[in-house]
Amino acid sequence: MTEETTSENIANEAVNPVEPATENIQPVTPEEPVAHPRKTDKYQMLLAINIILFLALAVLYVLFFSKNGNNASGKIAQTLQKAGSGTMKVAFINNDSVLAHYDLVTKLSDELAGKTKRLEGEIASKQKAFEKDASYFQEQVQKKALSDQSAQEIYAQLQQNQQSIIDLRDKYAMELQQNQLDMNVVVLDSVMNFLKRYNDKYKFDYILGFTKGGNILYANDTLDITNDVIKELNNQYRIATPAK
């Protein structure tokens, strides 16, 4: 078999796999793992807050009804008496509104969106360079300008480059996911720590988190302290982080 015939065989074996392979590394779109979090980050954050609040209420329930079992009935009686007399103070905040209007959330969301755009650009640039190299390799093989050994070496390098792009895309997707989780924790800690200070003044027994479609199906609007909480949250945030 001549060298030209061998190169053609390599072209058939090497070029064809490269073309489908490039389809596996399409420039990042919203369907890819490295997607714009701007459209989903607030929903994910809201879900995380709801889960944590639900767990907190579950722990509160267990502690209330199981701790000091001998005094449980007395505590229940006191709670019922307090609720029945109207002295139990309850308020709620709208989680959606807090996430939409809290300046800290806006800042962190913008930072995460900017990082996502930068990483997407890096992946897209590497993808474009890979496709260019793969196309040039195909042209050279078709022109029979490569020896058998050269074709094999270039093909192996293209496969390695392709896998590197896939690995990098997966790495960035995991990194952005962790950033999202970290962001959720920062916002939740900020709100909960603020509410502790806020409640020093108002002495509510409970401040609930209301979310449309969540666990609280109805709430009296007179108990809504969302606007005041958002105002105070932003005031404290702006004091802590003055504009540069």
Shape category = elongated
Binned strand content = under 5%
The unreliable regions are 1-5, 9-33, 62-70
Instruction: Count up the helices.
Output: 7
Biggest sheet character:
2 strands, parallel
Following the backbone from N to C, one meets helices and strands in this order, namely: HHHEHHHEH
Q: Which strand order spans the largest sheet, edge to edge or round the barrel?
A: 1-2
Structural class by secondary-structure content: mainly alpha
Tally of strands: 2
Computed Rg:
29 Å
Query: Averaged pLDDT, please?
Result: 77
Distance between the termini: 73 Å
Number of discrete domains: 1
Task: State the helicity in percent bands.
Answer: over 70%
Please provide a written account of the structure.
With 244 residues, this protein is mainly alpha-helical. The protein has one domain. Helix content is 73%, strand content 4%. The protein has 7 helices and 2 strands. Strands 1-2 form a two-stranded parallel sheet. The radius of gyration is 29 Å and the shape is elongated. The N terminus is likely disordered.
Key terms for this structure?
244 residues; elongated; mainly alpha; 2 strands; 73% helix; single chain
Write the layout of secondary structure elements.
Layout (H helix, E strand, L loop, with lengths): L2 H22 L16 H26 L5 H13 L5 E5 H7 L1 H40 L5 H55 L3 E5 L15 H15 L4
Parallel strand pairs: 1-2
